[in-house]
Amino acid sequence: QVQLQESGPGLVKPSQTLSLTCTVSGDSITTSHFYWSWIRQPPGKGREWMGAIAYDGDTYYSESLKSRASISRDTSKNQFSLQLHSVTPDDTAVYYCAREVAPHTYDYWGQGTQVTVSS
What we know:
Helix content is 0%, strand content 54%. The strands form two sheets. Strands 2, 4, 5, 6, 9, 10 and 11 form a seven-stranded mixed beta sheet that branches. It has a four-stranded antiparallel beta sheet with strand order 1-3-8-7, with no helix packed on it. The chain is globular and about 40 Å long.
């Protein structure tokens, strides 16, 4: 059974950097040919794919966020992380990590973590 768990601060001030980590168990993040994604859902809106890191370490970002987002990994800890720079209140959302088995198709999800951007 694959499990994912998000962790990180629940409150971030505007203009600062949001940092989240996803810890994976039950599978290696280097297993071919899975991708490991970050997805968010703002209040009252649909889910938005933010980006992903592939089993080989390549990264992919949504066009709207690629100037502010950065995804990295620590294979020794079987973790991958998201940094989102220069946040605004519009970045307030529930943030999820997930395993992507086909383009925008996910089979395992973390429970999600609420991040609020507020001063």
